[in-house]
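Data deposition worksheet. Section B asks for the primary sequence of the deposited chain exactly as it was used as input, without tags or linkers unless they were present during the calculation. Section C holds the resulting structure in token form. Section D is free text for depositor observations; keep each observation to a single sentence. Incomplete worksheets are returned to the depositor.
Section A, Depositor: J.P.
Section B:
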Amino acid sequence: MSDNDDGGRNDLRMPDDDEVFATVTDMLGANRVKVRCADGVERTARIPGKMQKRVWIREDDVVLVDPWDWQDEKADITYRYENQDADQLREEGHIN
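Section C:
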């Protein structure tokens, strides 16, 4: 057991300056999903090519998205949290 054991807390990836937390609400097909962002905006998010075959994204997953500068209703998914990590984010009050 390590000295800095803090009850099984994982050190999670947090959003960069332009990223926001989001929850996947609907699968649209063609590598696109509908997400509800933490800032209250519903966006159409794109799953980038490097994630398509490696990271499986489903409804109700918690993800990080990078909203587009020129079109606020669209975004790119940058990261997907595992269920255990999403539960930890909820417990710590980062997401609802």
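Section D:
The chain has two helices and five strands.
The domain at 20-91 is CATH 2.40.50.140 (OB fold (Dihydrolipoamide Acetyltransferase, E2P)).
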